[in-house]
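Problem 12. The chain below contains 125 residues. Write out its predicted structure in token notation.
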Amino acid sequence: GVYSFVASQDGVRIYPDAIQVKVALDNGDMLGMSAKDYFMNHRQRDIPETGISEEEARSSVNPDVKIQEQHMAIIENDLAEEVLTYEFLGTLGDNTYRIFINAEDGTEEKVERLKATEIKFSRAV
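Solution.
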């Protein structure tokens, strides 16, 4: 299994500083590790104030998505710029999604459909 560990500062997840660890699922041996992103990017950050509330950010998410968790996060956007976002984990049908909404202006920064091996939430029956 490959596990990602994300740094945090003041309760904000810092995704550009992630470390990945590969572990054998049969005996728990560590098979590999990648800490390049952490060593290249980790520093104390000045985390800006949000421009919109969590409720305003949540309204940018498809109303059919059942949100299970919410966090503040810094991610890298398509222009390789760090952006403060609201991170929402939610389900739509049988799929789990991670949705990042810009905390300054409410634009959608990124949507990831999580694989079956990543965190999954089940639908209530």
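Discussion. The first strand starts at residue 2 and ends at 9. Students who got a different answer should revisit the alignment rule from Section 12.3.
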